[in-house]
Write a structure and sequence with these properties.
Layout (H helix, E strand, L loop, with lengths): L13 H19 L43 H37 L12
Amino acid sequence: MTATTKSPPRPTAFQPALLLSAIATALLLGGCAVGPDYVRPQLDLPTAYKEQGPWKKAEPGQIDSNQRWWEAYNDSVLNGLIEQANQANQNIRLAEAQYRQAQATAAIAARRGRRPTARPPAAG
């Protein structure tokens, strides 16, 4: 009988990386801990605003998408930009409708291949 000696397993490239990641994780988690002597700082919060201005209480009104709110600024450039955006918006809606139609057509075409078909038996 011959005696066989077992050699220790050879380290692979994975083991040092695992050791380094474990050390890094421990260091990162240790940095998150707050010491036992932490005391939350006290803040002196005022009971009211310092500035006593002519504040007006908000009175929200009804939002109307047909309201031309931008005309309150009396800016001809802004009025022109809003008009351009409204005209371009119709083109975007049309493109979106065409895109959805193409998606639906593709979905229908993809489902056609999944349905069983009935064929007459082959004449023999």
